[in-house]
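The authors assume throughout that readers already know how a fold can be written as discrete tokens. Each protein is reduced to its one-letter sequence and a matching series of backbone shape codes. I therefore recommend that a typical entry be quoted early in the introduction. For illustration, here is how one protein appears when written out as sequence plus structure tokens:
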Amino acid sequence: MSHPVTSHPAAVAAGGSVLSLPQGPPDLLRLDTALQQSAALHGHLCPRQILGARSAVLAGDLLGLDFPRTDKRVLVLAETDGCYADGVSAASGCWLGRRTLRLMDYGRVAATFVDTRTGRALRVWPRTDLRERVRAQKPPDQKRYQAYLDAYRHWSDAELLRAAEVELDFDLAALISQAGAREVCSHCGEEVLNERWSVRQGRVLCPACLGGAYYRPTSRQDNL
């Protein structure tokens, strides 16, 4: 069954020139495998987990790469945390702890999938009118939450998502860094990993000591 979709200029501007997406049904076997893992880690299955998993599966197909990954070839830049990010991780195999997922905290339900070998990057996000269309199509006696679960699992990529090729606005190699790269900050004395230090007048300084700390010490630390 086809579900009418509409264009949204703001979404096109945010994501770039959109790609033509598959109109057919999703691969439920592959999707449900990812959703089982995501639900087990998250504690339950929710609609945004499905959107995250669908985004990752689509990105893998468009990049021509097998997902979930067992290596570090793909880097995911998730634009929100929570349910969506868990679905993305379960389907892509990219995790914060493996340094293959980064949070770009824009509060947007979207993610960019980067093939670090080729530099190709695909940004994927849900259609802006998605929830409105699901509510319009659902049976009168069906709860909205269940309608979202069903639609996000069964609708085609074209009905659910948008995707666009993008260019990264930062040095990918610098972000990834090198295994074993570490220095000790000359001010706080703490170890700094992944080349996140700077050198000022011959002194190695971490980002916090350069004025970028998200916290400030309290006097109570003296008693710990």
